[in-house]
Design a protein that fits this description.
It contains ten helices and six strands, in the order H-H-H-E-E-H-E-E-H-H-H-H-E-E-H-H. It is elongated and about 165 Å long. The N terminus is likely disordered. It has two domains: 339 residues, Outer membrane efflux proteins (OEP), CATH 1.20.1600.10; 28 residues, no CATH class. The strands form two sheets. The protein has a four-stranded antiparallel β-sheet with strand order 1-4-5-6, with no helix packed on it. The protein has 460 residues and is an alpha+beta fold.
Length: 460
């Protein structure tokens, strides 16, 4: 019994020691969230299949350029042999005295053997087929487009994940700051209740302060719900189990301050834009499709090689009637298009129009990307100024509330001053939080507009 008790005590102590590690959950940094999202996002999983499919299509086209070799074999049982009708030349070849005057004018002869078989191999090699050669280039371009499409989806995932991550950080910071304000108001309520008990303040002032306390707590709960919704969206974006807890690192204000002070303007590079690269490949695809239409008017030259081994027999390939003999053939096949009812010409014109349309899209996209970059820079600079103003405004609101509380204790200010100051502090806290969130959104937009969104993976 004592031994069991000792074991139980040791087990309990071990559990208590380990409990903090069991209950505590590692907080996810931005890098952790991005890394998890790039491995588990459902859209990226689909893009992976698209890349694999494009690679297989290219291999399929490449295989069509290789020699095409096919084997064949056949076995026939001639249940009814072929019968040929011909003049009765045998009777005519006999001497006149030996000829039968009553012999029929025609005779029938049964041809072939009971069994026949063949086996062989045929080879076909494209020697000159510009359309097929061009199809390989089309498949390579399609594979590049699949890769760029996957990269574009990855950038979208990084953008959305980072935006949600910083949004959660800003919201939780707002919750923390509101908690401090509520604690301050709660302390004031306790002091006011003591003063009311001593007859120093009116009950209406205590009640008004309690109402303000409840309103602040209700507002805090609403913001907490917003944070939970943001976390669920982040889980969905990351491919994280929605039923599991997800905690992100708290906001690092020094990091934000550093970003604000050292606002780096990422240079704009059109060639670094995945959307532009993808459109250039689309333009290349349109040109290749035009070439394919042109190549349909050119001759196609193929090499053919055939080898067969044939056998015949009346006794299933045994006995004196069993014969086997080989046959072979080699040749060239030339196909020359002459007239196609003007359909090929119309196809070329249609592809030419598609090339022109894509060139217009490229010029439009270039302007759009340049404008997005300039707008992102202006928005970042604007939020940079706002965040400095709101930070100072929050500090000022905290000081105003302290002064209002002190003046009320001295009897030189009213309860309305305290209530107004507390509401102003909450508004300043929320405004500063929104400024933080807006700044990081603008920062992410600038990274994306400059083609450097992947820098977020390295914490840049």
């Amino acid at each position: 019994m004592k031994t069991q008790f000792k074991i139980l005590c040791i087990t309990g102590c071990f559990f208590l020691l380990c409990m903090p590690n069991v209950l505590s959950q590692d907080r996810y940094s931005l890098h952790d969230c991005l890394e998890f999202a790039l491995k588990n996002n459902r859209n990226l999983e689909k893009q992976k299949f698209d890349k694999e499919k494009a690679a297989e299509v290219r291999k399929e086209v490449l295989g069509a350029l290789m020699p095409q070799i096919n084997g064949s074999a056949g076995l026939n049982d001639n249940l009814k042999k072929a019968v040929f009708v011909m003049p009765n030349f045998i009777n005519n070849m006999l001497p006149p005295q030996a000829q039968d005057p009553d012999a029929p004018k025609y005779m029938t002869i049964q041809m072939g053997t009971t069994f026949s078989a063949n086996m062989g191999v045929a080879l076909n090699q494209q020697l000159l087929n510009f359309s097929l050669f061009n199809t390989l280039e089309v498949a390579k371009t399609a594979e590049k487009m699949a890769v760029l499409g996957a990269e574009s989806t990855e950038e979208d995932v990084i953008n959305q994940t980072a935006t949600l991550f910083y949004g959660i950080q800003a919201t939780e910071y707002a919750i923390l700051q509101m908690g401090k304000t509520i604690d301050m108001v709660t302390g004031m309520v306790k002091i006011m209740e003591i003063n009311y008990a001593n007859g120093l303040v009116k009950k209406i002032d205590v009640d008004r302060l309690k109402v303000n306390q409840v309103n602040l707590m209700t507002q805090k709960y609403a913001i907490q719900n917003v944070a939970e919704v943001q976390k669920n969206l982040l889980k969905l974006q990351m491919g994280y189990q929605v039923t599991e807890l997800l905690e992100v690192e708290p906001i690092n204000l020094s990091y934000f301050e550093e970003k604000v002070k050292n606002c780096d303007d990422a240079p704009f590079s059109l060639q670094a834009q995945t959307a532009y690269q993808l459109l250039m490949e689309k333009l290349n695809m349109a040109k290749l499709q035009k070439k394919s239409a042109i190549y349909e008017n050119l001759p196609v030259l193929s090499l053919m090689l055939n080898y067969q081994y044939n056998g015949v027999s009346d006794e299933f390939f045994t006995g004196p009637t069993n014969y086997w003999y080989p046959t072979s053939m080699i040749g060239l096949s030339l196909k020359v298009p002459i007239f196609g009812g003007f359909s090929r010409k119309a196809k070329i014109q249609g592809n030419t129009i598609e090339v022109l349309k894509t060139q217009v899209d490229a010029a439009s996209l270039q302007q759009s990307l340049s404008m997005a970059y300039l707008n992102a820079r202006m928005k970042l600079e604007d939020t940079r100024r706002t965040i400095v103003l709101q930070r100072d405004n929050q500090a000022l609101a905290e000081e105003v509330l302290k002064v209002a509380e002190h003046n009320y204790s001295l009897g030189i200010s009213s309860m309305s001053d305290i209530l107004n100051a507390s509401q102003s502090l909450v508004q300043a806290q929320l405004s500063y939080t929104n400024a933080l969130n807006d700044y990081m959104k603008a920062y992410i937009e600038l990274k994306k507009a400059s083609g450097n969104i992947r820098d977020l993976m390295n914490g840049q």
